[in-house]
Amino acid sequence: MLNPIAIAVGPLEVHWYGIIIAIGALLGLLLAIREGKRFGISQDFFFDLLLIGLPSALIGARLYYVAFEWEQYRHNPIEIIQIWHGGIAIYGALIGAILAGIIYTRRKGHSFLRIADICAPGLIAGQMMGRWGNFVNQEAPRI
After folding, report:
1. Residue 87: pLDDT band with limits 50, 70, 90
2. b/e sequence 35-72, b meaning 16+ C-beta within 10 Å
């Protein structure tokens, strides 16, 4: 069984799950930049989109999870922000990232559907990497 903590320096622990998710996000970014070049969209646009999309996805993932597990949080709402105790949902992450993406792309004058089409392969690659993170975290079923 793999230790879920990759590196520990004093009280700071870096988990394999976080490393794998970061690699997935980087892979997705690189694929989006590559595809975006074909349409004349600068790489800075995709860097900014990632910087806006990741926190939005994380917030959406947590809010979605809390909404469906409200009984667990209603008497102790401070636990809502304690994400390190676990509890996020991919559906909420998609909702949060899509809402942020719609707002960002409109402000930059791009078609959201065009950008979503460009980013789709990167999102799929990121999801594939994330599943390996779930496996390391022992959240994915073994075959």
Report:
1. confident
2. bbeeeebeeebbeebbeebbebbbbbbbbbbbeeeeee
